[in-house]
Structures are given as structure tokens and as C-alpha cells.
């Protein structure tokens, strides 16, 4: 099936009196149909530039982009009707109700007003739709913004930081809304730096750093590729943890002592731990991989600066294997 969104080798250079900045340095991204796709990156990594370029608001310096199989910006007029986007926080008139706001937006966009109650239902604002927008919480205003993007029944919905500034309740509502939209068959591209949320909401992710993709895939794949590599070790009760840790350290392991267990970093061959300890008559009662969360992966990957002028994506770089079982 044709991906809903394909970007390859996208470049954008900003020139100012202070010099030249490569905001996008050969960026690649693919979003498959029906996914809620998280677009993650630290501040200034190029997320907004990517989304604005995709929507024809900025002219790229190179690369290729396609939405629903059509090259953009050349064919943007043909696909624009199938893309809903909120890239900058929309401003609403506080004295208008949500219903009036959406009705006027429907008129302006050539959409039948009969869509208004439907989108109000979709975002859960039907009950409050006759109240003035200035009485709304930030979360409700965000949902109104999403409602405005849903008026034309898009196949692809692009949201830049939709959970920004929301309290936990607002984030939960936004999360439910994203899932409901995805269940209805829509593809959602969500830029965010709220990693826990992305992990909960998204099926797949692309992580960008310094204008390049540093990893992509399903959330599970990304986490699996970047397990912390550490294992947690518990020993039989009564065994001296410090002694056992010293034994492992002497054998070359990186050991961190905790209260009633220790962790061994980069343990590519955990059997080595049991073997070294058993040779000293110490037996392991538990050996568990320490799982990484998206935040660990994000920090690890976005901390790796891409090499200037090198065009390939960072996740295509070769990763050198562990040599001695301790990952060193
Ligand atoms: N109009 C501009 N002129 C010059 N530089 C710009 C311009 N817009 C963005 N940049 C620079 O391009 C880089 C990418 O910015 P962009 O806004 O795309 O990042 P972002 O990932 O969306 O960041 P944030 O999460 O802070 O919104 C940054 O270094 C930014 O300072």
C-alpha cells in the first residue's frame, strides 16, 4: 500500500546575517496508512520546518515529498483537501461559540455546515458548543482546533504539539481523541516532545535530531533496538552483594550497586555473569533485562550529533558489535 506520507532527502537551509543554518539536512520519513505516527525531536531539531515544508508554507532546498502518493508541493492543490493540519495554534474569537466558529470556517472552506455537529461530537465538544470560546479550557480550545481540521474529513491529520500546555486531564482527552480518529481510519501525524504520551498513543515513530532522522519504526521496534543493554541481578539471600560486584568488576563488568540488587551495564552475554559468579560459589536468583523507555532512547539518540555534511541518516550508521560479552 502507498504510504500516506513519504519524505526523502529533504533539505532546508536558512540564511541570515548570522550565517547559514541547515534546519533539514537530508531528512527521511515514511508514515503508513492508519497509523498514529509520532514525530519526535528536541527543540530546534526541524519538526516545524518539516511540517511547514510539507504543507507548502516553506520552500525546501532539496529532496522529495509525497502525500497520499502525490508529489508535493507540485500536486498540493490536489491533495490539500485530504489533509487537515494544525501547525500553529489557531486563534479563535473569544466571543464566538464553537458552533459559530466552526460554521464560519465551514463556509470559508466550502464545507457543508452539516459537518459541524459531527466534528463537535468527534472532539467531545457538542455539549459546550453554544458557549463562548473564551470560557473554554486550553484543552477544549485545542479540541476545537482539531475539530476545525476535521471539517473537510481529511485522510491525514497533522498536529504540531497538540498536547502543549495541557494538564494531565487535557492530555488524556487528547490521547483518547487521537486513538478514536485512528480507529475511524484516519492517519495521524503528531509532533511532540512529550515522550510518555507518544509511547502511549503512537503506533510508530520517527525521531529527528539536527535535521536528520535518527531512528524510525514501530514503538515496539524502536524500543527493542535500543534496549538499555543492562541487566538487573539478584542473588540468593545472605550473599554479600559487594563481594559479588567486585568479582564481576574484576572480570571486566560495569556494575552499579543498588539496595538489594545490582545492575550490569552493556551485558551482551548475561550467561557470563552467572558463570563468573558460579565459579566463586555465588548463585544468581534473578537476571532481568532492564527495559528502555522511549525517553531513554530519545535521550540516547538525540545526544548523538550527526556528522556535518554526511548525508546518510544516523540510524543507517553501522553499529560496532560487542567484543568480549560485556559490550566493550
Ligand atoms: N525563519 C527562520 N530563520 C532562521 N532559522 C530558522 C527559522 N525557522 C527555524 N529556524 C531554525 O531552524 C532550526 C529548526 O527549527 P524548527 O522550528 O523546525 O525546530 P523544531 O524541531 O520545530 O523546534 P521546536 O520544538 O522548538 O518547535 C532551528 O535551529 C531554528 O532556529
Write the layout of secondary structure elements.
Elements: E1 5-16, E2 19-31, E3 36-40, H1 47-54, E4 62-67, E5 70-72, H2 76-79, E6 83-86, H3 98-108, H4 115-122, H5 138-150, E7 156-160, H6 168-183, E8 187-192, H7 195-201, E9 204-209, E10 212-218, H8 219-225, E11 231-235, H9 241-250, E12 254-257, E13 262-265, H10 271-279, E14 284-289, H11 294-302
Helix pairs in contact: 3-4, 4-5, 5-6
Adenosine-5'-triphosphate binds at residues 14, 16, 21, 23, 41, 43-49.
Molecular structure report:
This protein has helices spanning 47-54, 76-79, 98-108, 115-122, 138-150, 168-183, 195-201, 219-225, 241-250, 271-279, 294-302; strands at residues 5-16, 19-31, 36-40, 62-67, 70-72, 83-86, 156-160, 187-192, 204-209, 212-218, 231-235, 254-257, 262-265, 284-289. The protein has 328 residues and is an alpha/beta fold. The protein has two domains: 5-224, 3-Layer(aba) Sandwich (Rossmann fold), CATH 3.40.50.300; 231-289, Alpha-Beta Plaits (2-Layer Sandwich). The chain has a six-stranded mixed sheet, sandwiched between helices. A four-stranded antiparallel sheet has the order 2-1-4-5. Strand 12 (254-257) and strand 13 (262-265) form a beta hairpin. Helix 3 crosses helix 4. Residues 304-314 and 316-324 have low confidence and may be disordered. Keywords: ATP-binding, Nucleotide-binding, Transport. Belongs to the ABC transporter superfamily. InterPro entries: AAA+_ATPase, ABC_transporter-like_ATP-bd, ABC_transporter-like_CS, P-loop_NTPase.
Amino acid at each position: 500500500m502507498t504510504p500516506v506520507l513519504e519524505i526523502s532527502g529533504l533539505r532546508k537551509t536558512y540564511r541570515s546575517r548570522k550565517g547559514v543554518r541547515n534546519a533539514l539536512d537530508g531528512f527521511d520519513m515514511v508514515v503508513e496508512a492508519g497509523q498514529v505516527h509520532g514525530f519526535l525531536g528536541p527543540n530546534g531539531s526541524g519538526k516545524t520546518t518539516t511540517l511547514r515544508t510539507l504543507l507548502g508554507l516553506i520552500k525546501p532546498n532539496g529532496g522529495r515529498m509525497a502525500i497520499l502518493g502525490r508529489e508535493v508541493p507540485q500536486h498540493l492543490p490536489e491533495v490539500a483537501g485530504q489533509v487537515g493540519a494544525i501547525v500553529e495554534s489557531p486563534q479563535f474569537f473569544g466571543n464566538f461559540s464553537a458552533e459559530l466558529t466552526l460554521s464560519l470556517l465551514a463556509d470559508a472552506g466550502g464545507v457543508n455546515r452539516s459537518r459541524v455537529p459531527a466534528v463537535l461530537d468527534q472532539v467531545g465538544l457538542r455539549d459546550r458548543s453554544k458557549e463562548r470560546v473564551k470560557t473554554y479550557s486550553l484543552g477544549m480550545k485545542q479540541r476545537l482546533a482539531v475539530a476545525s481540521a476535521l471539517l473537510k474529513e481529511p485522510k491525514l491529520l497533522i498536529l504540531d504539539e497538540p498536547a502543549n500546555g495541557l494538564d494531565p486531564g487535557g492530555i488524556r482527552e487528547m490521547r483518547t481523541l487521537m486513538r478514536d480518529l485512528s480507529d475511524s481510519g484516519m492517519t495521524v501525524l503528531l509532533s511532540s516532545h512529550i515522550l510518555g504520551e507518544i509511547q502511549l498513543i503512537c503506533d510508530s515513530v520517527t525521531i529527528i535530531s539536527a535535521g536528520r532522522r535518527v531512528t524510525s519504526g514501530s514503538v515496539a521496534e524502536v524500543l527493542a533496538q535500543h534496549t538499555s543493554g543492562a541487566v538487573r541481578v539478584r542473588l540468593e539471600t545472605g550473599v554479600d552483594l559487594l563481594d559479588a560486584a567486585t568479582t564481576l568488576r574484576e572480570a571486566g563488568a560495569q556494575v552499579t550497586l543498588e539496595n538489594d540488587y545490582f545492575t550490569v551495564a552493556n551485558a551482551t552475554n548475561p550467561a557470563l555473569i552467572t558463570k563468573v559468579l558460579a565459579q566463586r560459589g555465588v548463585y544468581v536468583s534473578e537476571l532481568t533485562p532492564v527495559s528502555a523507555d522511549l525517553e531513554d532512547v530519545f535521550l540516547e539518540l538525540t545526544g548523538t550529533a550527526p556528522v556535518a555534511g554526511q548525508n546518510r541518516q544516523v540510524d543507517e550508521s553501522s553499529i560496532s558489535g560487542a567484543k568480549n560479552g560485556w559490550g566493550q
